[in-house]
Write a structure and sequence with these properties.
With 253 residues, the protein is of the alpha/beta class. It has one domain: Alpha-Beta Barrel (TIM Barrel). 45% of the residues lie in helices and 15% in strands. The model has no long low-confidence stretch (mean pLDDT 96).
């Protein structure tokens, strides 16, 4: 059985004090939930403060991105060792990074290789745009993103990777995919693409999350599906009651 995971991507939200208040509101209740791997991904500025509040708990901490270089003249960037100093997880390849900041399959691959060297657990995001979805290119897109994004990584590290299937047309729009459709994409395209790279055994071990307008109202629809192992949660992770309810739903999977 793959352990469910629920990760909260706070994106560019929360000052340090607001981050503290959110953790105060949700942490005691999250600590009572068993059987789910939980990860909070605040903005860089709040990582230190959130880390202090999570100390002694099983709640993980993740960064929202990083560069592949260790140091140098890269103004505004964060290195793998800087992330590792505070976190065990890092989100890589998010569609907002791809569409707004020009990240490609190749640069995402460089980040994933760096995560491997640093001993970080990446949450690797894939997913098609609305135009690609309407053109029936979902399979082509997710298979390409997997084959290029994970190229050159070894099977031992691959077992640590968490894949987040996030159809771009569902992120922040309130229009989530259906559980049936998301499960089909994962079962028919994501896991076979992983098997081609790392073998069938590894493909069955790797956890695949769903992301895109996940709420407490629809979480169970996704978590009840055999191929979906949890969620990468955006807006709902900024509301303590919502995020706790989503994690509880995952614990009942």
């Amino acid at each position: 059985m793959r352990t469910p995971m629920v990760a909260g991507n706070w994106k560019m939200n929360m000052t340090v004090e607001a981050a503290r208040q959110l953790v105060y509101a949700m942490s005691p209740r999250l600590r009572e939930i068993a059987g789910v791997e939980m990860v909070l991904c605040p903005p860089y500025t709040a990582l230190q403060a959130v880390r202090a509040l999570l100390e002694g708990s099983d709640i993980g901490l993740g960064a929202q991105n990083m560069l592949w270089e260790e140091k140098g003249a890269f103004t505004g960037e964060i290195s793998p060792s800087m992330v590792k100093e505070l976190c065990n997880y890092v989100i890589l390849g998010h569609s907002e990074r791809r569409t707004l900041f020009g990240e490609t399959d190749e640069t995402v691959n460089q980040r994933l290789r760096a995560a491997s060297r640093a001993g970080l657990t990446p949450i690797f995001c894939i997913g098609e745009t609305l135009q690609e979805y309407d053109a029936h290119k979902t399979a082509e897109i997710v298979r390409r993103q997997i084959s290029k994004g994970l190229a050159g990584l070894d099977a031992a590290f691959a077992r640590r990777i968490v894949v987040a299937y996030e159809p771009v047309w569902a992120i922040g729009t309130g229009k989530a995919s259906s559980g049936e459709d998301a499960n089909k994409v994962v079962g028919e395209h994501v896991r076979p693409a992983l098997a081609e790279l790392f073998g069938q055994d590894a493909a069955q071990v790797i956890r695949v999350l769903y992301g895109g307008s996940v709420t407490s109202a629809n979480a169970s629809e996704f978590f009840s599906r055999a191929e979906i192992d949890g969620a990468l949660v955006g807006g709902a992770s900024l509301k303590a009651d919502e995020f706790v309810a989503i994690v509880k739903a995952a614990s009942l999977r």
